[in-house]
Write a structure and sequence with these properties.
The chain is of the alpha+beta class. The chain is 18% helix and 28% strand. It is built from 9 helices and 24 strands. The strands form 5 sheets. Strands 6, 7, 8, 9, 10, 11 and 12 form a 7-stranded antiparallel sheet that branches. A hairpin with a 5-residue loop joins strand 22 and strand 23. The longest helix is centred in the middle third of the chain and has 13 residues. The chain is globular, with a radius of gyration of 23 Å. The termini are far apart.
Length: 458
């Protein structure tokens, strides 16, 4: 019997032609193989792949998995079909396979005409069409006020005709039709993988129109950017009720004392420089420090650097000795329930944590210098901004938002707008250019940012 690749628990995005090899031996952490032996023994040996079949193979030491992206659909299918060969291999059998190519996964934005409709009522409705992933996101404006939209990630079922089942554009949860108060809602759906994965303000559709399946011709055809217009009212399936959580009482926000610092250290291999950098960081009041270009070589460097940072816990993603590597350092030991994860090896690292009862997600990024790689990098980053946690995205983006409006700038602006992120420096210093990059010829620009989701940008 073949080892069937399964959907990865807790993964919000979709990565084409990619399989995750999850390490099963939790108690044998020291035996988790390095990247090259895994490629040689499992990918080349057990599965018969060659270098021409691979785009990327990423190792996540903290979460104990490899993400392998194939160069063709044929190679991807070969991995899925030959799972039995992995099961019978002495090293391969210690992995579970999970497909990350989730073609039915979409981000759904529900606009509530009645803000007191409960989240559970919406989830119950969406479950008629597919599996709703854990969590939701309330979209807020720059003042931190909810704008009536909730976002969910849904794995829609196939309809048997080459498309996906989906809800109508307008529906009511208590029999009241839009745009009356009641429990009426409207919905827009964006592709969570492919050309456009960010939510867009506004509501798709000028209904009612006949219900259609995603992929059919007509008013519901997928547009150039992956947006989908949906139509027709739906029958009520639940009764809305008051009691939705209201905003906090006036007063300081619980994260008002959280201080975040980001810096490109340009290498920490030299012990004297590393000591000086850690000393300078420790002298600040920063609660969280996001570091780029740390130049970690391997897991031994991770252990050494973590040991030398004495103020709190430290998490790293190893990159090349002369190019990448990022780290997140906590400035004290008050952070709890810490869970690190790698998004792009050596370039994007995330940490979920609880601080003073507040759930945080901190993403440290070091974007490629090459503009041709920016779109893929931002698309890999975007699904991890979809969370009900307080989101902070900090680091070196290598993109000047105030420069010429090229494709890199447009995609970063789309990420910022789609997830209601605030440029923390500009909010606090509206009159300052805040340039973070300079050269010997006198040119300068700002390519480093701390982006936060309201209402905790104060």
């Amino acid at each position: 019997m073949e080892q069937e690749p399964r959907q990865t628990p807790g993964f919000l995005g979709s990565v084409p032609r990619t399989v995750r090899f999850q390490w099963k031996d939790a108690e044998a952490g020291d035996a988790f193989p390095d990247r090259v032996p895994f490629i040689r023994e499992v990918l080349f040996g057990a599965l018969g792949l060659g270098t021409q079949d691979l785009i990327c193979a990423q190792r996540n030491n903290a979460a104990r998995f490899f993400d392998v992206s194939m160069s063709s659909e044929e190679a991807y299918r070969r991995v899925l079909e030959r799972g039995v060969d992995v099961r019978d291999h002495p090293l391969g059998r210690r992995f579970e396979l999970h497909s990350l190519d989730q073609n039915g996964r979409r981000m759904v934005t529900v606009h509530l005409f009645n803000p007191f409709v409960t989240a559970e009522a919406i989830r119950t409705f969406l479950r008629r069409y597919g599996e709703v992933q854990p969590g939701e996101r309330m979209v807020r404006d720059e003042l931190g006020i909810w704008n009536g939209r909730r976002q969910y990630m849904v794995d829609f079922r196939e309809d048997g005709k080459g498309g996906l089942t989906h809800p109508p554009a307008y529906f009511s949860l208590n029999g009241v039709s839009p745009p009356s108060a009641g429990g009426a809602c409207s919905m827009a759906m964006r592709a969570a993988a492919g050309r456009d994965i960010w939510p867009t303000p506004g509501v798709a559709g000028v209904g009612p129109v006949a219900p259609r399946t995603v992929g059919e011709e007509g008013p519901t055809e997928v547009g150039a950017e992956g947006s989908v217009d949906l139509g027709a009212p739906a029958a009520a399936i639940a009764t809305s009720s008051p009691g939705v959580a209201r905003g906090p009482a006036p007063g300081p926000h619980p994260l008002a004392d959280l201080t975040i610092l980001t810096t490109n250290v340009r290498g920490l291999q030299k012990a004297t420089k590393r000591t000086a950098v850690f000393r300078d960081l420790a002298s600040t009041s920063a609660s969280i420090c996001c570091l780029q270009e740390v130049h970690l070589r391997d897991q031994r460097d991770e252990a050494l650097f973590s040991q030398e940072w004495r103020r709190g816990k430290a998490y790293w993603s190893v990159g090349g000795v002369h190019s990448t590597g990022v780290g997140i350092l906590f400035g004290d030991r008050s952070f709890e329930k810490v869970s690190p994860f790698t998004i792009v090896q050596g370039r994007a690292l995330g940490v979920d944590a609880t601080w003073r009862g507040q759930n945080l997600r901190v993403l440290c990024v070091y974007a490629p210098v090459d503009p041709s790689s920016h779109i893929a990098f931002l698309e890999a980053l975007a699904p991890f901004c979809f969370t009900n946690r307080h989101v902070v995205v900090a680091g070196d983006f290598n993109i000047n938002l105030e420069g010429r409006d090229d494709v890199s700038v447009k995609h970063l602006k789309k990420l910022v707008a789609g997830f209601s992120l605030i440029d923390g420096f500009k909010f606090c210093n509206p009159g300052s250019p805040g340039h973070t990059w300079h050269n010997s010829r006198g040119a300068s620009s700002r390519i480093d940012y701390i982006l936060v989701a309201p209402p905790h940008y104060s």
